Amino acid sequence: MSQPRSFTAGGSNAGRRRQHPTRKATQLALRRRAARDKNIVLALVPLVAIVAKIMVAFVLPPKYFYDNNRILGMSIDSATVDEWEGTYRVAADLFKSLNVFGFQTMLDWSFTLGVIFTILVFLMVIRVDSPDFLQSIFILAATGLLNIYVFNIGKDIIQFAFFFAVYIILILPIDSSILKIGLSCAVLYYESTFFREYYVLIAALVLFVFVLLSMFRLSKGDFNAPTVAAICVICFLGIYAMMVVAQAIMPSEYQQMIGLRAGYLTAFDGSADSQTLIKNWIPGDGLPIFMANYLVNAIRMLLPVELMLKGMYYLPFFVFQLLITFYMVHLLRRINKVHDKSQFLALCVFIGYALASFIFEPDFGSWVRHESATFPVLHLLILSNNQRLKFFAPKDDVLEGAVS
Question: Which UniProt keywords apply (predicted)?
């Protein structure tokens, strides 16, 4: 009686073995499709960069590059440009020292820096997992925005370089997350010493977010929308506590932050950025009003619906921001299941950057432009397998039919 059972078991195993090649072929087809999709995106990156540079040269009006042209004029000692100090002087002096080829026009810098830094973007994208459709949209949108607004003579390319340094730290083969986040904050602090002073605040907020999210990662349960809301509330309370401390021990800096929006309204009136200026919706003075406007402005910047009311020109900015907000929330909802240390730390760095930007960014255009300059860090939290959406995943049954 044992022989039939043996025969049945053997037949069952043989059946399973007969199914195995099909599953293996399906998996191979999935890998081939993923590789093909990634190759298509990689091929489109330089094409998008070229289109963006054509727009810089022939389509977009000069008013969108007044910062770039001012820094260019200062770097070549043009008599027709009023020289400004601060970050303009830092950028002008830097490009003056780098101008070994004697560039005289903005387009000289735009095309040269576009080639160099698009190659860097290409190399960063090569490292990551094969993107799905939505991730591919993010890559191409970022490439376009970077080549229009960042890869040019100006201040934003300097910010990109600092975030690239943070990116290098995050991907180093170092096990200690504390060491990596400490080195990243050191880079941001160093930038604050000679370029953008508020980056010292970003460094402090990155540490705050790292501690906060590390505590949430200890939870073993499933995260949901209330979890994300709790993280946001704690971040808001952290900013409030920071402002209270600043009011007590740094009154001049406190007054500067409190009055930023009013100052922007005066300084940017009539400029190209005035159309997208982030004006406070709640009138009044004092810390409670400031914090109420901080919350409202944060929501407006993360979900810039009002940009769509200003014309179709702002559609790329709107879509790009929605993608970033979606992926950030999507990752926060599963923060205790993020096993990639580099991705977790990239999220901490970006949220710290965003929390400070809600205070300092004057307009929506500057916000999205500066945000795109964080691409070296930003792409680490977006372009990964755990950010791929099932909706865009290839269907196994379709592929099985293709390989059967």
Answer: Membrane, Transmembrane, Transmembrane helix
